């Protein structure tokens, strides 16, 4: 049997169709160094679509389950790197979802190795690209929310977490809502929601059906400016549909939004996004008869913000649009 040797960190690679099977055989011995070299060579081969296809359809994936529980953190990390490369292709993502690897992989979210945890998040993020993957990850949402609350990970991992949670929340918001996020870490939950859940039509409907709006109204008065802005952003999108308008009106949201529009000039720069979201939400609420009636009573405030005295042109235009919609007559 002929082999090609690359370097000391890689195992010898057999030619042709024997390359993948021989490397998987090298994963079995107890020597962790041999396993690492074999994993390194397998990672190199996964850049070849033919070898990736052979790995996926050759029944080799199940052998990785033992490596995900290996005592050596380097072996666990390299195994997750191999899975990340596999999930770079749709067939790899589908194969992983059909395998028994997801439960042991999810256990590594709390691994002692930061590199291993990062690779796990890379794999989960790619799985979430598929609707079936997002569905499979819904059971992990509470655990992912907890990881987000801990805020111990580096920025890249935090971004991956938010991206994965956003995709899962677009499919079903309920696991995030019932993960205790609304009460213990509102900023985490509503950053996720505002990242995409409330933008699509079905997402707006989920916000209405999932009892999210009462929590959002409370968060408009949160001490954290980012939480306020994110909550206002979700409300802004949700009130575009009739169910969202009616729920918000029933919750008495107009007075809360008007209070947010009343800002001192010194605060304008930091709170511009919050004011813009609030004005746009009020504009949408003015399309409902009850909303227009309530806003007509508070028109002087909005008129003031729409006049030349308003320094910020974006806020001025948003206020002008609100006034125009509120005062419109057939």
TrEMBL record:
Any matching Pfam family: Cnd1
Start and end residues of each Condensin complex subunit 1 C-terminal domain: 60-174
Top-rank lineage group of the source organism: Eukaryota
Listed PANTHER family: RADIAL SPOKE HEAD 14 HOMOLOG, RTDR1
Protein name according to UniProt: Radial spoke head 14 homolog
Organism: Mastacembelus armatus
Organism ancestry: Eukaryota, Metazoa, Chordata, Craniata, Vertebrata
